[in-house]
Design a protein that fits this description.
Blueprint: E1 2-6, E2 9-12, E3 17-24, E4 31-38, E5 45-50, E6 57-59, E7 67-72, E8 77-82, E9 91-99, E10 107-108, E11 112-117
Parallel strand pairs: 2-11
Antiparallel strand pairs: 1-3, 3-8, 4-5, 4-9, 5-6, 7-8, 9-10, 9-11
């Protein structure tokens, strides 16, 4: 499966952005999906994940209550709605896919830059 993330940009602290991850090449509903990010000087870290049918979601503690993950299997797209953004949310956001039922993050998109100014 090929993944392409988009929707990043520059936003002020407290603002919102919605990232999208478009999948192609395989049946999207066969894949569990996730978002990761890599901030400057840090390793890539898990942000959120969603099951193949959207029934199960999970969030890292630092985004709980602020970010919402979703997917539209008819559009082969996953989303990440990011609210109440903080400067520490700055980084490159990557989407990842794993063929169900696993969660091994085997496929990766190219990333989209999110910059939150204070």
């Amino acid at each position: 499966v090929q993944l392409q993330a988009c929707g990043g940009g520059l936003v002020q602290a407290g603002g919102s952005l919605t990232l999208s991850c478009a999948a192609s090449g395989r049946t999207f509903s066969d894949y569990n999906m996730a978002w990761f990010r890599q901030s400057p000087g840090k390793e890539r870290e898990f942000v959120s994940r969603i099951s193949w049918n959207g029934d199960t979601t999970y969030y890292a503690d630092f985004v709980k209550g602020r970010f919402i993950i979703s997917r539209d299997n008819a559009k082969n797209t996953m989303y990440l709605r990011m609210n109440s953004l903080k400067p520490e949310d700055t980084g490159v956001y990557y989407c990842s896919a794993t063929r169900k039922p696993r969660w091994t993050y085997d496929y990766w998109g190219q990333g989209t830059q999110v910059t939150v100014s204070s």
